[in-house]
TrEMBL record, chains A, B, C:
Chief localization: endoplasmic reticulum
One biological process term in Gene Ontology: leukotriene biosynthetic process
Record protein name field: LOC495166 protein
Keyword Endoplasmic reticulum: yes
EC numbers for this chain: 2.5.1.18
Lineage: Eukaryota, Metazoa, Chordata, Craniata, Vertebrata
Cellular localisation: Endoplasmic reticulum membrane
Gene for this chain: ltc4s.2.L
A GO cellular component entry from the record: endoplasmic reticulum membrane
Molecular-function annotations in GO: enzyme activator activity; glutathione peroxidase activity; glutathione transferase activity; leukotriene-C4 synthase activity
Source organism of this protein record: Xenopus laevis (African clawed frog)
Membrane-spanning ranges: 59-88, 109-127
Keyword field contains GTP-binding: no
PANTHER family, alphabetized: LOC100127769 PROTEIN, MICROSOMAL GLUTATHIONE S-TRANSFERASE
Keywords: Endoplasmic reticulum, Leukotriene biosynthesis, Membrane, Transmembrane, Transmembrane helix
Source organism, top-level taxon: Eukaryota
Amino acid sequence: MPHHIVLLGAVTLLGVLEQAYFALQVIAARRKYSVSPPSTSGPPEFDRIFRAQVNCTEYFPMFIAVLWLAGIFFHQGTASVCGILYLLARYNYFQGYSASPKERLGPMYLNAAILWLLIGLSTAGILHELLSHYLGLKII
Amino acid sequence: MPHHIVLLGAVTLLGVLEQAYFALQVIAARRKYSVSPPSTSGPPEFDRIFRAQVNCTEYFPMFIAVLWLAGIFFHQGTASVCGILYLLARYNYFQGYSASPKERLGPMYLNAAILWLLIGLSTAGILHELLSHYLGLKII
Amino acid sequence: MPHHIVLLGAVTLLGVLEQAYFALQVIAARRKYSVSPPSTSGPPEFDRIFRAQVNCTEYFPMFIAVLWLAGIFFHQGTASVCGILYLLARYNYFQGYSASPKERLGPMYLNAAILWLLIGLSTAGILHELLSHYLGLKII
């Protein structure tokens, strides 16, 4: 079984590493702009980095969920390629948001598009499984 | 194997779609009440919608975790029905909180009750598996 | 298959229970320091408990992800022991942060160390599976 999910595992691991990188950037920004915990607001530069990390963190569980659903019910390779593109767009989102709220928009739309694509692949795969198992329909 | 988890997959997918809906409501509220990122506070109407989304997002990983544990170790169908009820209660929570902090309370207690039920089912299923595999006890 | 993941399931369940405990502590602190939703700031005592819970919640999905990757691709027992240690350190982190920002530091470093250990075990297991499946290399 492991080889049916190893690519999904690899993308998940890269996702965790990216989240760890974002968390370290917030720690560095706390030092740079003297924002001590438990405070979470400071100069605009800090606020942007902080919000960028929070936003990536909010979407992380949704991303992991549809990555695995698309990978298990549709196709592992396709889902994993989408996953890598999502993580790249997330990196650009974080860098863009750190510079200005406007520069986060491009990668944000790309992230949303990839997430919807993974949702679409998951839906197709799950519907196919539901129809074939419960109704005996074989579409493909 | 896929048919042993397809209902859990379907409920997870619905959960991701619900989270996406909540995120879109926050974006709409940001426009309506002129709260530009990275700011996260505005008039009370905005604050309630924002907090409703944050709360749903905080509980999402816990919900998905016990949905799958209950579905794998106890019973897929039972866990999936609980999952659907949880998502409905979450929708009511979000709508209620958008109206007033008080109106979030009913669905909040229902959400908590379903979560504890899923925790109970997971505990029963995992204990049964631990006892039967490591101690050779067959309860059922 | 269930016995290959039952320890991971048990640790995940304990993690959900711990998160529920943290959430209940925040509700108790809201009452004690009269901080009504949707507000999220109050006296420093409340702010610390609130931030401690948010921080644990942010890391929860990453922790669950590497717990399962390390457990599936490396070794279930080793990953589960790391998982239990992580949950204990999280408890100490929460208690420490509730007392003062400084007292959160020790458990925070321990949490980070265990997370990096789980990342290392996941990386080893996934690389091994990738190399053996796609390149036919058998390292062990």
